[in-house]
Amino acid sequence: MKPITRAEALKGFFAFTALTTVLAGCAGEGAGTPGAGAPKSKDTVTIDYATYNPLSLIIRKKGWLETVLSEQNKKVEWVKSAGSNKANEALRSGNIDVGSTAGSAALLARANGSPIKVIDLYSQPEWSALVTTKDSGITKVSDLKGKSVAVTKGTDPYFLLLQALKQEGISAKEVTIQNLQHADGRTALDKGQVNAWSGLDPIMASAEVENQDVLFYRNLDFNTYGFLNATESFLKDNPDAAQAIVNVYEYARQWALANTEEATTIVEEESGIKPDTAKLVMERTHLDIDPVPWDKQVQVLKGVGPILVESGDVPSQSDVDQALVSIVDNSFAKKADRAAVEKVQKAVSK
């Protein structure tokens, strides 16, 4: 019998994940969220929120999306994503209609057959870096050879780690990679169970502030943009709702730029982090961007593509190439209308 390759196994994993998530809900994501994992009403839009996506926290707190979608007689159901990998699982299964991931994670999902499209950019963050404890003796990427590193596979921190290693001529096989969810990675680092951690904000910022953990390798170019993704079926069946979501995201982006202090406070409260941590997170979250996904983001992903194939996370470069030419639908972001949201808000406040 021919041995199963890692890439083939990964495709099988994605299919298995889709089935199990439908049956059991998105484990770890929808806990405490009414209706998570259950059949959705046609009048309900299911969208994620995540601590790595500050705009989602602000939108959920302010209730803007509920107000705007009520004009379409639709309700909103929020589901928490603990990482891009979890958001991808929920999108793949149809457990959510719209989810936030890193660009690299969206490419991974699309290249492995997940029917998603990026419809908006919510930030250009420096949300990932390589982290170690202050007394570990690790000061550069080359020090990781023969060491153990915690990281969440399928997320920006994972691809940052792989790219950093490749840049130094180190094979991923020369490092022991511990696949742990982001919060568990930090815990493993601080308990001395791993030598380093490829971290993600705001957990990474908390480690800096609370434990004086050290970001020994940073590279903004290895952090992909924040992608707001929707399932193709949702875009086909609910284009007006999709447009409303993009409108609200643009409204929230402009609001956050104009109300930095309140935006930071919301991120602090909704993430359960300290004020200094929230400030650090927002400093590394660049919101002053063009939110329309264009060739610039695709070019960034082209650099990630070969890494996906080399690591065995995607079967072939042709799968990556097909994903790159089909992953973007910027028609909604091009028509983003924050004034439409303002109009609804004013009408409700009267």
Structure description:
The chain has 16 helices and eleven strands. By secondary structure, the chain is α/β, with parallel strands linked by helices. The termini are far apart.
Structure described in brief:
It is built from 16 helices and 11 strands. By secondary structure, it is α/β, with parallel strands linked by helices.
Overall spatial form: globular
Helical content class: 40-55%
Give the amount of beta strand, in percent.
15-25%
Distance between the termini: 71 Å
Note the total helix count. Answer: 16
Radius of gyration: 20 Å
Sequence of strands across the biggest β-sheet: 7-6-8-5-9
- Mean pLDDT value: 90
Decide which structural class fits the backbone. Answer: alpha/beta
Low-confidence stretches: 1-38
DSSP E strands, number: 11
The profile of the biggest β sheet is: 5 strands, mixed
What is the ordering of alpha helices and beta strands? Answer: HEHHEHEHEEEHEHEHEEHHHHEHHHH
What are the SSEs and their pairings?
Layout: H1 6-24, E1 44-49, H2 54-62, H3 64-70, E2 75-80, H4 84-93, E3 98-102, H5 103-111, E4 116-125, E5 128-132, E6 148-151, H6 156-167, E7 176-179, H7 182-190, E8 196-200, H8 203-211, E9 214-217, E10 226-231, H9 232-237, H10 239-258, H11 260-271, H12 275-283, E11 285-286, H13 295-310, H14 317-326, H15 331-334, H16 338-349
Parallel strand pairs: 1-2, 6-7, 6-8
Antiparallel strand pairs: 3-10, 4-10, 4-11, 5-8, 5-9
Helix pairs in contact: 1-4, 2-10, 2-11, 3-10, 5-13, 5-14, 7-8, 8-12, 10-11, 10-16, 11-12, 13-14
